[in-house]
Every structure is written in C-alpha cells, then in structure tokens.
Amino acid sequence: MDRIWLKNYPPGVPHDVDADQYQSVAQMLDESFARHADRPFSVCMDRWLSYGALDRLSGQLGAWLQGQGLAPGARVAIMLPNVPQFAVTMAAVLRAGYTCVNVNPLYTARELQHQLQDSGASAIVILENFAHTLAEVVEHSAVQHVVIASMGDLLGPWYGRWISFAVRHLAKMVPAYELPLAGGRQVLSFKRALALGARRRLRPAQVTPDTPAFLQYTGGTTGLSKGAVLTQRNIIAATLQAESWFSPALARVGDAGRINSIAALPLYHIFALTLCLLALRQGSRLTLIPNPRDIPKFVEVLKKRPFHLLPAVNTLFNALLQNDRFRQLDFSQLCVSQAGGMAASESTAQQWHRLTGSTMIEGWGMSETCAIGTNNPVNASSFSGSIGLPLPGIDIAIKDDAGASLATGHAGEICIRGPNVMPGYWNQPEENARTFTADGFMRTGDIGIMDEGGYTRIVDRKKDMILVSGFNVYPNELEQVVALCPGVLECAAVGVPDEAQGEAIKIFVVRSDPALTEDEVARHCHDQLTGYKRPRYIEFRDELPKTNVGKILRRELRAHA
User: Fold this and answer.
1) Using one digit for the tens of pLDDT, what is the confidence trace for 243-275?
2) 273-to-90, 147, 262 alpha-carbon distances in Å
C-alpha cells in the first residue's frame, strides 16, 4: 500500500524497524544490562536501582522460577504498582522463558479470578497490600506459587524496613489475609525467592520470536476481559518503534543515560509498559511514582531532578496544571509531553504549552498494538487534534464493513497492520476471526478519517466501549455485574462526556423491587468492580429503549444522557 504519511516523518526517523535483530525480549534486555551495568535505572522514594542490580536481581528471581518446574511458556501474573519490584519481576519472567500476565493491583476478587482462570497462571508475584484479594480466589485458580512483595523490599535494608513497617502498621494499608496452602501451594516472600534463586543459575530461555511475552488483558465485548497475546517480536518491534519516534526530541539531552522518564502511569498498563521497555532499551532513567493521585507528592518528586519525557493521560496533565507548585517548576529540560490512553483536549494542550513551552503530542494505540500505533511528530510546534502518523513499519487503513479500503477523506474503521500488532487473543478463535481482515489488518473499532498527509482523526467509536481516564470499560461487563444486584430487572451502561475523565459511566436501571435505591446499586458496584469501572451516575427508569427484537438501544440512552 502507499504509505502517504512517510513524507511527513521528522528527519532521522526510519521508515521501518528490524524487529528480527533480537530472538527474544530477554536477549534485548541482556544486551542493555551488559552495556549499562553501572548506570542508574530507576528511582523510587529517593532509592536508586542500577542496571547491574536489575540484572542480578531479575536473574535470581528468574532462576527461582525455573527451579519450580514451571512448564515452558508458563504464565506468571504480576500484580504490582510502580515499585522497583515490577521491573525486576517482569525481566525475571521474560529471561526465564515464561509469559508475563499484568494484573491491575486494584482489581476486585471477581476481576482477579477471571484473569487468573483465563490465563491459566501458575505463579503470581503480588504486593502484600493486595494479597487479601488473592486469598479470596486463589483456590479457584491454577496458581501454585505465590511470591509476596513488601513495599520496602528494594529500598535498602534500613529505609526499606521502615517503609514496610509504616505501610503495614501506621498507614494500615495491608489488610489481613490468609493464603491457603492446600494442594501443595507454596507462599513465600519476595526476598526469600531472591535468596533461593541466588543459589541457582539462570538458564537461557528457549523461546522463538513468536513465543508469547505478555498476555495483556483488555476489555471484552463479551463482558469479560480477554488477553491480547503479545509475542517477543511484537514487544521488540514496539520498543524499537518508540525509540525511533522519540529519538529526535530526546537527542538534545545528549547522553541517553541522563534521560529521565516519569513513570506515573501504571506499569501494568500497556502505555507505561512500553515506555518502561524504551527506557531499558536506551539505558535511560525511570522515576517511579507509586501513587500519582497524590499530586502534591508527585510534584515534589518532579522538583528533585530534571525530567525529559513525561507520558500522561489528559486527566493527569489537567491535575498537574491545577497545582500551584507544579506551575513553579523548571520545564527547560522537558523534551516530550506525550499524551495517550484517552483523547487529549485542545484546551488542556494549550494551557500546557503556555506553562511549559512543550507541545503536547497525542498518540493512539491499544493493548493489542503494544501501545503506540500512531503518534504526532515529536517536532510538532502545536497541538494537532489528530492521532498523528503511523509509526515505522506500521500500516493504517480506513476500511468499510466489508474490509475494503476507503479513499482519504472518507470515514471508516481504523485498521492497523504491523510487527507490533498481536497475532490474536488468548484462546479466542471466534473473536480472532472477527478481529482481522482478509489482508491481515486488525479492526480497532474506532472510526476515523485519514487526510492526504497521512494524519488520522478519530470521529466516532464503532464499539460501545467507554473510555475512562485512558482505561477501556465495556458495557457488557458492567451490565452483567449490575444485573446481579438484588432488585434489578434489567440495566444498560453508557459513557457520558466528563471534563476530568473524558467519559464517566452512567447506568440506567429498571427495578424489579421498587424499594431498590441508588446507594444499594452503588454499593454492589463498589464490591464487584475496580474504581474506574464504577458508575458515577445511576438513573432508574420504567423501561429501556429497545429494537424490535429486544436489543437495548444504548445509542438512544447516550443521546439522552
């Protein structure tokens, strides 16, 4: 196909990447560890972790995992926030030849049970703050090996102990739990697993470029999240694409080892995960923000050292702009203000540019595309309102329902093809058949228009997906949960515009029990759904609009809302 967008590539950005230069992600990591051993990799609560330490610790944990007799390609769940243990565990799993299954630490027991069961994970590394959730469901999963991390494990012997003590006993952030040991299940601490692994030797992973590296779970139209299979080649390609795209802007820092990227978005999310892998690839630094909702503390961290790459969703950019101390920071070193995960607003982009002098560049992607599929050029001088150009090696086509490509200027479904695009969903053959076109493009469900310069603008959403602060929420899942609330006859979920989150969730409910209250529905949702999936608005109705065959018309409810 004619890649009309290449004429608008910034100078120095290649047209393609060679994803086959590495056999595996582990090989790419090993190269980085050897080349940058003396460099600092991450900082968390003022405690640094070097590339050499990351190499050593991930080797120990990987060797321990291998010593448990896990089958080749076994899935290992990672339920950790932005703490040093995340990178150690991710690298350990990949280097040992297994598959990472990233889990949102704030999942409810119901959500966690589905992901563990669907992935078939046989091991999990989890922060003790969330172990009580695992305790509720572990017996309904295949998990046989549980590694419990504490907040201070990698923050030094004295400071780390103090942090763990404060989290447990002062802040009381670790609810009581008891993990059953029936069936030979073993439970041990993160530090103990490292110590046992230090007695073993990590064996080279036996994987191919097509071996799954990650199962990245994303919302499903069936009401249950499904795992996007991201292969070794997919991850390598996405990392090299990001490196190629951002290099022109980051080159002004000079030594890549001085580049400081801010990891405020959760590393279990594909957006932040890809930028973490980029840091590992280029040997740069990562500032870990365990709780970005605490804006004052976040700003205090930003004050401590120059920052060059700041990825965020629109809501986070907005929150920072509202903080007086943030407005007093030095932004002279900021090279890239990367917006993604949700639509960026022009007003936020304008305020950001006035304050920082940095242009907010918006990108677009999905878990299925290893984050970034398209992005605005990093040398852009103003906010475009588009999702930009396809990254190196990626093809974007605007197609009709029959799979035929449309001419520029015509609206259709945005379809994507490239080395970063997943081969399919985990154990979902029927879904895969619907997802891919005959010529190998993946249907995204977004409706867009491409102009003659290769820039694409999203104009609508084909699916009923709701986008809350960058997180996909699917109405079917919400409706299945709400329908189980006593007193609910039927219900429907839609997204409504929201200044802060992009969209907020509204539930329309028809009652079978007239005494049912909004508070009762809200409490039911609180118990069954993680925070961003909970409805902000609940409206009771006598009936819901439906088609002649009885299908609920969400579009009418959206229009009403």
Assistant:
1) 999 999 999 999 999 999 999 999 999 999 999
2) 10, 21, 12
CB 75 within 8 A of CB 98: yes
- Cβ(288)–Cβ(263) below 8 Å: yes
238-244 mean pLDDT: 98
**Which of 85, 185, 81 has its CA nearest to residue 130?**
81
- Residue 314's nearest CA partner among 509, 501, 559 is 501
Q: State the sign of the Cα–Cα–Cα–Cα dihedral 462, 220, 417, 429.
A: negative
Which residue in this structure is represented by tokens 């290449």? 6
At residue 268, the 3 state secondary structure works out as coil
Matching residue, tokens 């050593």: 56
Task: Look up the pTM and report it.
Answer: 0.87
Handedness of CA 197, 203, 204, 205 (dihedral sign): negative
Q: What's the one-letter identity of residue 4?
A: I
Q: Are strands 145-149 and 123-127 parallel, antiparallel or unpaired?
A: parallel
- 192: its two tokens: 């103990």
Q: What is the DSSP-derived secondary structure letter of residue 83?
A: S
Token pair of 78, please? 């990672």
Sign of the alpha-carbon torsion through 480, 484, 485, 487: positive
- SS3 sequence of 344-395: CCHHHHHHHHHHHCCCEEEEEEEHHHCEEEEECCCCCCCCCCCCEEECCCCE
Rounded-to-integer distance, Cα 270 and Cα 400, Å: 28
* pLDDT of res. 477: 80
pLDDT digits 0-9 by tens, 77-118: 999 999 999 999 999 999 999 999 999 999 999 999 999 999
Q: Which residues contact 243 (CB under 8 A, 6 or more apart)?
A: 278, 281, 282
Q: Classify residue 42 as exposed, middle or buried by CB count within 10 Å of its CB (0-12, 13-18, 19+).
A: buried
Task: Name the E strands within 401-501.
Answer: 412-417, 424-425, 442-450, 456-461, 466-468, 471-473, 488-498
Q: Is the dihedral of CA 467, 307, 235, 87 positive or negative?
A: negative
Return the residue matching tokens 């009381």: 172
Of 256-265, 400-409, 459-468, the least confident: 459-468
Q: In what order do the strands lie in the sheet with 488-498?
A: 488-498, 502-511, 537-540
